[in-house]
Amino acid sequence: MIFLQIFISFPFFKFVDRLNKVFLLSGLYRCRLGDVVEVAGFHNGSPKLNFICRRKLILTVNIDKNTERDLQIVVEKGSQLLNKAKAELVDFTSYADVSNQPGCYVIFWEIKGEAEDKVLEACCREMDAAFVDHGYVVARKTSSIGPLMLCIVERGTFKKILDYFVENGAGLGQFKTPRCTNNPVLLKILSECTIQTFRSTAYI
Question: Is the CB of residue 24 less than 8 Å from the CB of residue 46?
Fold first, then answer.
């Protein structure tokens, strides 16, 4: 099969169809054009896939352009500091806040366990400094983009988001937390559930 030959040759690829059902480790999912997946193994000759990210999803405020994959790398770096403090990242999402000038990135974390403020401040600073997009770095250094904001939400927040999507027609087994959002309902849930906020001190 040509599709599988292409698939096996390249561990990361773009889907060529508008909508495909593929077998992932966690079940059947609908993947969109541009989704990035990784071959995680094979079952009876069929590939098992791990969903990586929506390639075309971009977090941007000014001249900066960061993909969902860029965001995931940044969050992984920040969460490493969290893990050292014996806490754990449960889930996250983000949005580009342009309601004020300069605009900034806002990242929402739900965490398990307890982390001191100084640890969360370090996580926030680490994430802000970890974005390597040239446009972002330049804009941060010139204050065209404001300091990244880390918002800690109460436990169960992402369950509320899941419930919202399911109530509005999403399949329970097909739901994936949006890593970037401008959905006003989701932002309202996130805002109402925020219990702590931290501003990055990177680039000062």
Answer: no
Q: What is the pLDDT of residues 119-154, one digit of tens each?
A: 999 999 999 999 999 999 999 999 999 999 999 999
Q: How far is CA 53 from CA 1, 67, 70, 71, 158, in A?
A: 25, 9, 10, 10, 18
* Token representation of residue 102: 């300069």
**Global model pTM greater than 0.90:** no
Sketch the domain layout of the chain as residue ranges: 2-54, 58-199
Nearest to 39, CA basis, from 69, 77, 5? 5
**Inter-residue contact 67 to 40 (CB < 8 Å):** no
Taken as a whole, the chain contains a residue count of: 204
Q: Tell me which residue has tokens 């307890």.
A: 114
142, with CB counted inside 10 A (0-12, 13-18, 19+), is: exposed
Question: In this predicted model, what pLDDT tens digit does every residue of 6-30 receive, in sequence order?
Answer: 233 334 333 333 334 344 334 444 5
- Of 29, 19, 15, 25, nearest to 171 by C-alpha is 29
In this structure, which amino acid lies at residue 94? S
Whether the CB-CB separation of 27 and 8 falls below 8 Å is answered with no
